[in-house]
Automatic annotation (TrEMBL):
SUPFAM superfamilies: Ribbon-helix-helix (SSF47598). Gene3D superfamilies: Met repressor-like (1.10.1220.10). This is Toxin-antitoxin system HicB family antitoxin. InterPro entries: Arc_rbn_hlx_hlx, Ribbon_hlx_hlx. It comes from Thermoactinomyces vulgaris. It comes from the Bacteria.
Length: 62
């Protein structure tokens, strides 16, 4: 199940884009995925991103 992602235009300084491009390549990501990763990490650190739901089965306690 894929979530629809919001699309928007982002203008970046050429030097910043080049740095992101190299960083993304070093981590085997696209530039877009790298930007999303960085923004998620920053939002989590700032307490602005909801926690991800825990996966796994619940134990049946009888």
């Amino acid at each position: 199940m894929s979530k629809e992602k919001k699309r928007f235009l982002l203008r970046l300084d050429h030097a910043l884009y080049s740095a992101l491009e190299k960083w993304a390549a070093d981590e085997f990501r696209s530039v877009n995925a790298q930007i999303e990763f960085i923004l998620k990490q920053a939002a989590k650190k700032a307490g602005r991103f909801p926690p991800e739901p825990k996966t796994g089965k619940k134990e049946n306690k009888l």
